[in-house]
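Continuing the series of single-chain predictions for the mutant panel. This is the parent chain; the variants come on the following pages.
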Amino acid sequence: MSISSLKTISLQRFSLNFAANIIATLWMLVGSTRAFSWVKPTFMQFALFASLALGSNVLFSWLAAENGSVFNEQGLVSYLIWPTIILLGGIILARRTSNQGMLFVPVVLWLVADTLSALLQSIVQFIGSQGWLPDWSYSFLPILFLILFLWQTLALLWIFARRLRMPWWERIIVLVGAVALLTIWQNNVADQPIFKQIPVQPVLEEAALYEQPRLLQQALNGIDSSVPGASDWYFMGVAGFSEQNVFRSEINKVRELFDVRFGTSGRSLSLINNSYSWLDEPIASKTSILQGLKRIGQQMNADEDVLFLTLSSHGDQDIVQLSNPPLEMDNLDAAWLREALDASGIRWRVIVVSACYSGSFIDDLTSPTTVVITASAADKMSFGCTNSAEMTYFGQAFFAESLRENTSFETAFKDASLRVSEREKFMGFEPSEPQMVIGSLMQTALPAFEQVLFDKSRPSVSSISADNGAIDNKSFTISPPIATGATSP
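Parent structure:
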C-alpha cells in the first residue's frame, strides 16, 4: 500500500474519531453511558480537542472583553487547571481499573464538551455585542454560562458513577460536592478572564484644565440674539454621566436634530460629561449649566422665545447625576434647576428629563409657562443606557422616531410612550411610565410655538404672552395611553 493511501486512511480514521467523540460527548451531556461506546480516546484526539477548547475559550474571552483589555496570564492558568485535574483523574482511573484505554476518556469528553460550550457562549456573546439580544438577557447570561460549565463536569461525573456502579448516596455526595466546589471556584476566578481590562485611574490632562474655560466661553459666545418680532427656539442639552457614551451620543444627536431640522443652529448649546471629550466639548457642571442658562436668557426675548432643555443621565429621586472623574461634581437637583431657570429670566420652557425616577422633577419644574416631559414616573426606573446603545429607550422613541413623525409635542409624547411600552413589554421590564405636564399658559401658547418649530412659519407669540393674566395657574398632565417607560438609574 502506498504512503499516500496510508495518509488517506489515517485522515479518514482521524475524521471518524473526531465525529465519534462529538457524538460521545452529546450522549454524555444527556447522562447516557452510551458515550463509552462512541468515545475514541487517542492522544491525537486529546491534543486536538485540547487546542480547540483553549482556542474557543480564548475567543469567548476576547469577545467578552471590554475595550482596552489585555492578555491575562492568570486567567489562562485558571482555565488550564480544570483539564489538568481531569487528566490526572483519568490517569488514576486507568491505574485503578488496570485499563490504560481509560486514560484519555474523561479529559477527551470534557474537552469536547468545553469546546462546544465555549463556541456557544462565543456566538451568544457576539450576538449580544451587536445589540441583537433583549436587555433582560444580559443579567441572565452569566447564570446560563455557569450552568453550562457545571453541566459538562457533572455529566462527566454522572456517567462515570454509573459505569463504576457507585451507590446512589455516593453519587449524590459526589455531585453536590462538585456543584459546591465548581460554583465557588467559578465565582472566585470571575475577575480573572483570559482577557482583562486593566483599571486606569482617570487623569485630567493639564491641557484640559486650560481648554475647558475656553471651550465654554466659545460655546456661550456662539449663541446668537433672537430676531425681534419673531418667536425663536433655543436648545440646551446636558449629558450628565461620563462613564457611558450613550448620554453624550443622545445629546449630540438631539442637538443635531434641532439644529438641522428645527433651525436652532446658532442658538444651541451642549454641555457634555464624557471621559473622552475634555478637549472637545464644555463639561456639564452646575457652574456651566448656570452660565449656559444665563447666556441664553440674555440672548433671547423672554416674551417671544422658547428654550428646549433636555437632560440625559442616570438619576434618582429628585436628582440627575453629574459625574466626570477625576473631577468631583455635585449632582443636579430639581429645586436648584428651577432656581437657575427662574434666575436666567427664561420664561417659556420645554424640559425633557431622560433618567430613572425623572418624574420626581415634575413638582419643582412645573410652572404656567413650562412643559415638563420625563422618561419615567417619580418611582420608576427607565431603560436603555447600555454601553452599546446610541440613545436611551425614551430618547430613541421620542427624539429619533416620534418627534420626526409628528408636529406637536403631545402627539409625539403619546406615540413615544406607546413605542417604549411595547419595547419594555417585549424585554420583560416593569413599565417606567413616562410623564408629561403642560402649564396653563403654555397650554394656550404651545400650538403657536410648535408651528414655529415644526412648520417654520415663525409667527410671533407676543400677543399670547400679553394676555397671561386672564388664565389661571393650573397645569395639565398628559398621561400616556398605556403604562410606559425609557434609561436605567
